[in-house]
Structures are given as C-alpha cells and as structure tokens.
Design a protein that fits this description.
InterPro entries: Class_I_gatase-like, DJ-1, DJ-1/PfpI, Prot/Nucl_acid_deglycase. Residues 2-160 form the DJ-1/PfpI domain. The chain is an alpha/beta fold. The protein has six helices and nine strands. It has helices at residues 14-25, 74-80, 82-93, 105-110, 153-164, 167-176; strands at residues 2-7, 29-34, 40-42, 48-50, 53-54, 63-68, 97-101, 138-141, 144-147. The strands form two sheets. It has a seven-stranded mixed sheet with strand order 5-2-1-6-7-9-8, with helices on both faces. β8 and β9 form a beta hairpin. α1 runs parallel beside α5 (153-164) and α5 runs antiparallel to α6 (167-176). The N and C termini lie far apart (30 Å).
Amino acid sequence: MEVYLFLAEGFEELEVVTPVDLMRRAGININTVSVSGKKDVTGSHGITLHADLLFEQCDFSNAELLMLPGGMPGTKHLGEHQPLCRLLTEQNEKGKRIGAICAAPSVLGQLHLLEGKKATCYPGFESYLGDSYVDDSVVVDGNVITAKGPGVAYDYALCLIYLLKDKDTADRVASQSIYNI
C-alpha cells in the first residue's frame, strides 16, 4: 500500500506534517512528492520541507491514496500541475481514494471529481464545491475524503488511518499521541 502526499510551494504545513507523522506511526508507507521540480518545498508559513520524491520520479500505479494539502498559494499550484490533475482524474476513475484538506478540495471541484458526492473545505472555497459542499469537519463520500482545514488535520489523518488500516490502529495512534484523552 502506497500513499502519496503532494507538495507545492505555499502548502499548509500542519496539513502535511500531521498526516505524514500519524500515518508513519500507523505503519503506512506515505511519500511526500514535490510538484515544484525540486525536493525542498516551502510552506505558506516559511517552513521548508524536503520531499521524499519528485513527481517526475514516481510510478503511481500502486497508489492506494493520493493526498492534497491546502494552503495558499500551494493549492493554486497543485491545480495548475496538469500531470497531477490527470493522475487525480485517473485515480477517481478507478474508484481509488483521494484526500484533500482546506482549500485543496477546490482542485477536486474544478476537476469535476466531486459530482454526486459530499465534501467540505476551508471557508471561502465553498463555491468551488458547488452542491457538494457540506459544513462538516471531515467528510467521507465513497473514495473521496475531505477536511475543513489545519485545525482538523489530526481528525483527518486518523480518519484516513481508519480507512487504510482499521479502527484499532487509528485508536492506538490517537492514544499514543495523547489525542482527546
């Protein structure tokens, strides 16, 4: 099982570090992938992360989950990366999982991947979701998992762990990190 989380200049740091950390604690192989042409990518609050891979280096045929963090202008850059947009469309056509948080569900909306589904996003991006928008923290509808923003990154990550592994693993990771105790 492979998970890929995409980084573009201006990503929201909490929406990257939290899921990566928790998924690795859960034993999930998650890779950070730069779409910026270089491995060092700087977030919207000036924190630079070193991506595991460059987009061009990847074979995504084994992807169980593709993840988009929000943040601006990171979300805009993700939506402009045509190979990533094609990959997301193919992933959706196969019924395989796609996760997006904060502003990033807008990319899915613009690609028409939310039609007939419910989804959430950061306030101010609802129009990109159209009739799909619901005002919840984390929404799972079929193969698409969306979340509202950085404040729910923990809930989002634990939801994804539950879906990829099981409830016991998600509960163990939450307990070991003293979450909601």
